Amino acid sequence: MTYGDRRTSRGRARAAVTLACLLALVSAACTGGPGGTPQDGQEESAEGPIVVASGLDVTGSGSVRQQLIEEWNRLHAGSKAQQAKLVELPGGADQQRSQLLGALQSGSARYDVVNLDITWIPEFAEAGLIRPMPVEESGAAADDDLDFIRQVHATTVWKGRSFARPFNTDVGLLYYRPDLLTEADIKADKQPNAHWTWDQLYSSVKTLGLNPVRRDELAGWTTQLKQYEGLTVNAVEAFADAGVELTDSEGKYSSDAGKLKKGLDALLDRVGRGRVQPAALTSDETASLTDFAEGRAVFLRHWPYAYGALGSLMEPRDYAVNRLPGKAVLGGQNLAVTADSPRAENARELITFLTSRESERCLLDAGFAATRASVYGSAAKPCWPRVAAALRPAGDAPTAAATGEGTPKGQGAQARATYIRILGTALTEAVQRPRTPYYGAFTQVLQSHVHALLAAERPDTDAAAEKLDKELRDVFAGK
């Protein structure tokens, strides 16, 4: 059922309920249709709390999302209907998606706001599970929307309508070991506006003389090649570098076997034996970060939150960060109002607060990547004072181990400022994964074929591309 179908059926129910109320002469007591669901125009009278469903906070910041919810509740202490509650869903991204789909389709959970991975927006929008955001043609609200980084805001859009607001974003970054590079006389002091190309990274690995065979040996670099979403991200980045786009903006398949072979060859070259840590084939974010921190890789592809995590794992002089060579994929989550929420107006106000300039600064300080361009500028608004205080021990200087703020011990404000500039630039250049309502099926098919290819002793990209092309055609056609 589409959102339009839901609105039509609700319109009929609303008319019937109104007539019943008039006949009974108790219209003042009539609050909803079947099941007690409030109708449009009556959202303000619905009892709270506003329930927000989200995945777990990976930053180790003391839950900045929960702190933001508590700040909202303090600001609305006089209104029971505007109080909010955060529900954190367990499990990985695939499990959270299944939980949310099941809950919203069955109505078994009363969620008003859902924090959706950016790749889920087309699926939830197409299924009529989330509401389009109001269209602001002009005024303060329209101007405020322009502050979101363009590529990041585009992740909220499906078929010309925005269905969410960007909450926290993500982008691939390159972490490296200056200590090991300096020992090999490799210049590691890259400027904020310059970064390695893949050829330069390969050249550095060759100069280091690394050709690892075992998992405990030092390798040139490592990343996430386990059969899960991290593998999809690495594959899409390699495809993008090779000029291969899998879909158009409407989610229609736009590739073919020849293009896929080009992308698969680029991925194989990138993770070829002798360059990548052998353990990468079974590594997720945690495992690859550990290999890097414990000295089994010189370079690491990872997300922004790793910057804060490394502060408690390594000496500050032993690691640094820059933009990823070539194309980097966007990640992150967007906040959307559920289609059946009886508190939609209050839910939208909460989302506006959670994505405000002050709140986005809190998210950046906690280790997430902020979605607003202004947060990366010199005139950025500070984090809400009480939230900032909750993210660090009272009276103490902030440390990464205590706050997850991404301010590693000893690196200081200058290194932090450099990191923020790098992150802001990387976000403006990032690319999206395919935009499709069938993303769940797509990523499983891609992971299966790519992982088998990487694990093969003699990988055949011609045959792999032919098989992958056939299955992707079916996937993107909804078969």
Summarize the helices and strands and which ones pair or pack.
Layout: H1 3-24, E1 50-54, H2 64-75, E2 84-88, H3 93-106, E3 113-117, H4 121-126, H5 140-145, H6 150-153, E4 157-158, E5 161-162, E6 165-171, E7 173-176, H7 178-183, H8 198-208, E8 219-222, H9 229-241, H10 257-270, H11 285-293, E9 297-302, H12 305-310, E10 320-323, E11 330-337, H13 344-354, H14 357-366, H15 385-390, H16 400-403, H17 412-428, H18 439-455, H19 461-476
Parallel strand pairs: 1-2, 1-3, 8-9
Antiparallel strand pairs: 3-11, 4-5, 6-11, 7-9, 7-10
Helix pairs in contact: 9-10, 9-18, 10-19, 18-19
Short description:
Helix content is 43%, strand content 11%. The chain is α/β, with parallel strands linked by helices and 479 residues long.
Description:
Strand 4 and strand 5 form a beta hairpin. This protein has a domain of 197 residues: 3-Layer(aba) Sandwich (D-Maltodextrin-Binding Protein, domain 2). It is an alpha/beta fold and 479 residues long. The chain is built from 19 helices and eleven strands.
